[in-house]
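Example record

Each entry pairs one chain with its bound ligand, pyridoxal-5'-phosphate.
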Amino acid sequence: MTIPDLTRQLPEAPVLPAMSRQPAAVPRPRGAYSAETARQDFPVLHRTVNGHPLVWLDNGATTQKPRQVIEALAAYYGTANSNIHRGAHTMAREATEAYEAGRAAVARFLGAPDPASIVFVRGTTEAVNLVAQSWGQDNLGPGDDILVPVLEHHSNIVPWQMVAGRTRARVVPVPLTPEGEIDRFAYEDLLSSRTRLVALSHASNVLGTVPPVREMTALAHRYGAKVLVDGAQAVAHFPVDVTELDADFYAFSGHKLFAPTGIGALYAKPEVLADMRPWQGGGNMIDSVDFGLTTFAPVPHRMEAGTGNIGGVIGLLAALDWLGSFDRDAVTAYEEGLMAYARQAMATVPGLELVGAAPERIAVLTFTLAGHDPAAVADWLDRDGIAIRAGHHCAQPALAHYGLESAARASLALYNTSEEVDRLVASLHRLQQTSG
Ligand code: PLP
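Structure tokens for the complex follow.
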């Protein structure tokens, strides 16, 4: 990996203001998408692992970063590092401008009406905890229901269990069909005037299922319930519009979207956010502090106590610019084709069973292989330079639905190719031949 030579950018290149005023990336022709071209932007995809060219199929855990993101981070720390919102000098103003440009870019990316509806957080987990501890603590009470589909990631289950414990509300699981879709009839039956919140993911990290979020949200709203959508696995795979979904909350993690770790965003409807109490206290989130009375800053700053991940926001901005340079519909179509190819090719491996068969899905291929522990499968593939994940995928209830405690998972991203799928499948065939 080559880190840019920062001395070439010193010192008058105003990296941050330039970055914040215009999209860095040149738009590519609409309708044309080439994974081979996209791959050129990823230094790490050109390394070897255990003597083989890397095949990165662990995108559900985290995506790789394009050089545009790596360079933006290096340029920020190398030429422009400053704290924000305390702007006594030029660099503080530049950093603040870039940070707020990042907020505006996230709002555009999500189709949110107003940058002030975006709160920066560490990631999806922190976003859900924020809503649970702020909105949940104030709006849940004894006898209230929080509906949570069985396919959720632990980070969209446990925070609700914790707040339910404190408020004496109930977390009610919404069952799945054998295919791994949310059971629509059960959902309708479980909704009632007691339902305060529906917390569901826009795409499952273990089954790949993409639930009908807009319809489910409309149903929940009929009962006056709020809806939180966990977009951790969705945002890298298809365009999202929170206004069209009518979601009350939408959360995602930057690191699953080609951006750095430690940065993510929570969208909340402006009228909902305006009523939410701060969940953490400290600097940056106050209007004035007095031992008699402390008053808070307006949202979103009220929700962002302490120094935020400024570098992370700069990296996220670069990632959104990079992703925005593609025709997203063409990317989605490419991924769908690759997923169909992978599902067919994997089905040729003796003893391989794919987990989850929802028709609306993202390119997450969770599987079991007869005669092999998932960890042993991951280990075997690793020796061929192929990175997949094995374990419970932080979605134990979803796996339990299939009677499993553990499974292997290959998760694809826009830079994966059919040749990489072929290498995965060939390696799995070899494993079955060697052990057969
Ligand atoms: N939700 C889903 C569906 C996920 O797949 C993940 C991570 O794998 C998370 C939430 C948690 O994301 P993070 O660890 O970035 O907070």
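The chain has 15 helices and 17 strands.
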